[in-house]
Structures are given as C-alpha cells and as structure tokens.
Write a structure and sequence with these properties.
The protein folds into 2 domains: 113 residues, Winged helix-like DNA-binding domain superfamily/Winged helix DNA-binding domain (Arc Repressor Mutant, subunit A); 72 residues, Arc Repressor Mutant, subunit A (Orthogonal Bundle), CATH 1.10.10. α1 runs antiparallel to α2. The chain contains 9 helices and 7 strands, in the order αββααααββααβααββ. The chain is of the alpha+beta class.
Length: 235
C-alpha cells in the first residue's frame, strides 16, 4: 500500500457513498434548501439521526450545484433539524467527535471523510459496543443490633428520665428538708448504684429550683469552712 492510498479527502464523499447512507431516510428540498426526514428515520437512534443529517449535508454540492449551502452545522441547527434538545445533543456530539466520526471547526460539525466506513457500521448497528460500566457495589446494610445490645441502648436512653424521677422522689420523701450540698446529692446517687458525673447533678438541682412553683430553694452557706450552695425544700 502506498502512502497516497492513506489520503482521505472530501472527494471520497461521492454521490454513491452519500446516497447509500441516506437514501432511506432523507430527501432534498432544493427550492427551500432544506433536508426532509422520511418516516423511516423515526426508527433511527439519536446518534444515527445526527450522522444521517451530517452526511446528507455533504450532498448539497451534488444536488444543488452552483448554490452555496453549508455542509457543516452548529449544534443549535442540528438539534432543531433532528429534534433532539441541547441537554441530550451536546454529549452525543462530543461522543461522536471523540470517536472521530465527525469533525468540529469554528463551532460547526461535519462528517469526516475518513470515517465513512465507521459511520456505515454505526448505521448498520455494527459499531463496537462499549462495555457497560461495572455496577457499583451496593452499600453494606447496617448490622442489626443483638437483642442484648438493643436492650442496653434502650436502657441507656431511658436512664436520664429514670434518674429525674428518682431525684424528684427524694424531694417528695423529704430528703431536702435538711439543706443538702451538691456533694451530698452525688453521694445519694452513688449509694443507690447510679454512678453519674458530678457535673451532671446541677441539672437536676437547678430544674427543681426553676420549677413553677419551685420544688427546691438554694442559698449560700458555709460548709467545712467553704461557701457553697445548699438546696432545701420550701417550708
């Protein structure tokens, strides 16, 4: 094979080649300078319609000699003629361009002369099929908690409410008839097996002080040589 045999030019787009690709789908309206799709074109995919349209544009110099009719088209014009909106058309044109089936220049697309064989394969449904992307691995379902764990979680979530009820019971029982310090309240919790942080205890005390009407009152008192808050039931 000589190097000259590797040259692909527009002259390769002969009348026979163009006709073979578009004869079943397109007719030329020379007076209106428009291409009309035949009913059979409805069976074509979006890619095939675009290719048929762009190949058909190359026929204008043959069927309308002496008239200057563009053989390339911009996306908006292509979309209007093949009835494909821009959101679908743009990625389709990019794919065809990336596959070197069509060319882009100055914002317009046209058929590559060297790609006629591949275009015919696309029209015949014999184009190489892209491998489908491997499906993403489904997210792992969260493991179900064992019955014992679930019970423990429920117990933990209800613990705060249980401690509040227990604390309010102490008020009703008269534990606070005598002024009590925060340390004494903490010790009472510990005596009953509830080991809670010291910083949590003011939550129960202040809630009782702020209740309407107050369930506890507080005042400064000297205990072991220190000024501390003490809490007492209202008399």
């Amino acid at each position: 094979m000589a190097l000259k045999d590797l040259v692909a030019s527009k002259s390769a787009l002969t009348e026979e080649v163009v006709e073979a690709l578009i004869k079943d789908y397109v007719r030329y309206d020379v007076e209106e300078k428009e291409l009309t799709f035949l009913p059979a074109a409805a069976r074509l995919s979006g890619k095939q319609k675009v290719l048929v349209y762009l190949v058909a544009l190359q026929g204008w110099p043959i069927v309308a000699k002496g008239q200057e009719i563009p053989t390339a088209a911009k996306p908006a014009h292509i979309g209007e003629r093949v009835s494909i909106h821009g959101g679908t058309l743009r990625p389709l044109l990019k794919e065809l361009k990336d596959r070197h089936l069509i060319a882009w220049k100055g914002g317009a697309y046209s058929v590559r002369a060297a790609s006629l064989a591949d275009i015919k394969a696309e029209m015949d449904g014999k184009a190489p099929v892209k491998k489908a992307p491997r499906p993403k691995r489904a997210a792992k379902a969260p493991e179900k908690a064992a019955p014992g764990e679930l019970k423990a979680k429920r117990k933990a979530s209800g613990k705060s409410g249980d401690l509040t009820a227990k604390f309010n019971g102490w008020i009703d029982e008269g534990f606070f008839r005598k002024p009590r310090t925060l340390g004494e309240v903490r010790d009472r919790f510990h005596e009953q097996g509830d080991i809670i942080p010291r910083t949590t205890i003011p939550t129960y005390l202040l809630a009782a002080v702020r209740a309407k009407p107050p369930r506890l009152t507080r005042a400064r008192a000297e205990v072991d040589g220190k000024k501390v808050w003490v809490y007492t039931s209202p008399s």
